[in-house]
């Protein structure tokens, strides 16, 4: 055991004797001299960045570009009536601030006062009844069944009059 110990010490001393610092580092010394000889002022200045300009998206109330446009038959088009128009003095309800296409019916509730529909959209599930308003086009709920909510919207006809447009929100099963 003692011989192995002295043998390890001897090998270590011979390895250390080989690291006397007189190795061939000429290529490294030459590279360092070249780097030090380079001029110091060759750093390019930082590019000038334009400051961020805020952008306000103003088309949020328009039709979604991902939905097909509604085809209008100009010859057989229904004419609006000046008798039908939204009530500008009516206080808007919360769900009128959202697009009607963003709602889906997920169920119904009923009690002694009547039937209610459960609509998912606008950040949660909302309970609505007949007479409530929904969507951006003055949509009034006219009937609620087990399978659908019927809504009548008041939309402009493009000629200064208004049309009543029926919409239906069907029950989405397994939601």
Short characterization:
It comes from Pseudomonas abietaniphila. With 175 residues, this protein is of the alpha+beta class.
Describe this structure in words.
The chain is α+β, with helices and mostly antiparallel strands. The protein has a domain at 94-170: Roll (SH3 type barrels), CATH 2.30.30. 16% of the residues lie in helices and 27% in strands. The protein has helices at 2-17, 26-37, and strands spanning 104-111, 114-121, 124-128, 133-134, 139-144, 148-156, 162-170. The strands form two sheets. A four-stranded antiparallel sheet has the order 4-5-6-7, with no helix packed on it. The protein has a three-stranded antiparallel sheet with strand order 1-2-3, with no helix packed on it. A hairpin with a 4-residue loop joins strand 4 (133-134) and strand 5. The model has no long low-confidence stretch (mean pLDDT 83). It comes from Pseudomonas abietaniphila. InterPro entries: PilP (IPR007446). Residues 1-17 form the signal peptide. It holds the Pfam family PilP.
SSE layout:
Layout: H1 2-17, H2 26-37, E1 104-111, E2 114-121, E3 124-128, E4 133-134, E5 139-144, E6 148-156, E7 162-170
Antiparallel strand pairs: 1-2, 2-3, 4-5, 5-6, 6-7
